[in-house]
């Protein structure tokens, strides 16, 4: 019964905010303008940014209500702080930035609609909706966090160089879901020319990077120079910066078909099998 009341109240808050605060919808544009949040609501976004950048899964989970939800695109719902911490243990560490597009709050319930991106990539990469609740007079906690990417792959995005660049960008952002969305179900990642298989199938590649990402320092970053494109093949010399033991480089060869990575090889004898 209390859940029904909370959902009904949030629906009323959303409707009232749309009717009275926002008026008619703005004209369509590439990016909507940000709104300034009251300090208590702004703290929700800033705390999330800070915990994400540190890769601190426990701190991220503590920003949620005990029975809160994480609703990410392409993944099953996650509920409860323990499950949220486990989900975030495989994510985080990128230079996330959040901005609000609309918000409203009453005594114990509220919402923020916003957009997200990363510091080194211009513009928004996705959008989110947070529903919030709190004890009267207490700090706001996230009850549900729903997000998804803003851009659907277009024709240009399926070109081999664009696919690989999005894969590298997602790795830098610690966005495992975005990385795996670019991998074919039957993909194979292996060494070259030795042929030792690093991971075979989308699921095993997901597990491969899920194990690797939590070990990376917050400052770990990949830059590509040079890149050679030959038909469906993309050859990247990838340079790694971060903590002293993360410095290095690797040469990766990607085979792209239909906008997905079907094969990837890393040259034998080079460190860190990481795009």
The CATH C-level name of the largest domain is Alpha Beta
Q: Helical percent range? A: 25-40%
DSSP summary: helix tally: 7
Percent of residues in β-strands: 35-45%
Shape: elongated
Largest sheet, in brief, is: 6 strands, mixed
Question: Mean pLDDT, rounded to whole units?
Answer: 82
Main β-sheet, spatial strand arrangement: 2-1-6-5-4-3
Count up the domains: 2
Overview of the structural elements:
This protein has 275 residues and is of the alpha+beta class. The protein folds into 2 domains: 148 residues, Nuclear Transport Factor 2, Chain: A (Roll), CATH 3.10.450; 112 residues, Roll (Nuclear Transport Factor 2, Chain: A), CATH 3.10.450. The protein has 7 helices and 12 strands. Strands 2-1-6-5-4-3 form a 6-stranded mixed sheet, with helices on both faces. Strand 4 and strand 5 form a beta hairpin. The longest helix is centred in the N-terminal third of the chain and has 21 residues.
In short:
The protein has helices spanning 2-22, 39-54, 57-62, 81-88, 160-172, 176-180, 202-212; strands at 64-72, 78-79, 96-105, 109-118, 121-133, 141-149, 183-192, 197-200, 221-230, 233-241, 248-257, 260-267. With 275 residues, the protein is α+β, with helices and mostly antiparallel strands.
């Amino acid at each position: 019964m209390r859940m029904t009341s909370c959902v009904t109240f949030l629906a009323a808050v959303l409707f009232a905010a749309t009717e009275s605060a926002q008026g008619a919808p703005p004209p369509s544009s590439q990016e909507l303008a940000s709104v300034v949040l009251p300090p208590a609501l702004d703290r929700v976004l800033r705390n999330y940014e800070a915990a994400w950048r540190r890769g601190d899964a426990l701190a991220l989970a503590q920003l949620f209500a005990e029975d809160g939800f994480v609703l990410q695109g392409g993944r099953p719902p996650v509920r409860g702080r323990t499950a949220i911490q486990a989900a975030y243990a495989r994510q985080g560490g990128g230079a996330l930035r959040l901005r609000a597009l609309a918000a409203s709050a009453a005594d114990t319930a509220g919402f923020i609609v916003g957009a997200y991106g990363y510091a080194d990539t211009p513009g928004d990469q996705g959008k989110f909706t947070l529903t919030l609740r709190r004890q009267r007079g207490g700090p706001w906690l996230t009850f549900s966090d729903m997000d998804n990417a803003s851009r659907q792959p277009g024709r240009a995005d399926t070109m081999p160089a664009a696919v690989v660049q999005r894969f590298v960008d997602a790795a830098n952002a610690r966005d495992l879901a975005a990385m795996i969305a670019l991998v074919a179900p039957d993909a194979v990642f292996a060494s070259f020319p030795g042929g030792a298989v690093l991971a075979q199938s989308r699921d095993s590649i997901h597990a491969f990077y899920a194990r690797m990402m939590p070990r990376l320092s917050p400052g770990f970053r990949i830059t590509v120079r040079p890149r050679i494109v030959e038909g469906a093949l993309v050859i990247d010399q990838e340079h790694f910066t971060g903590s002293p033991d993360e410095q290095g480089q690797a040469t990766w060869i990607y085979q792209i078909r239909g906008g997905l990575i079907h094969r990837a090889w890393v040259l034998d004898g080079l460190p860190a099998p990481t795009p």
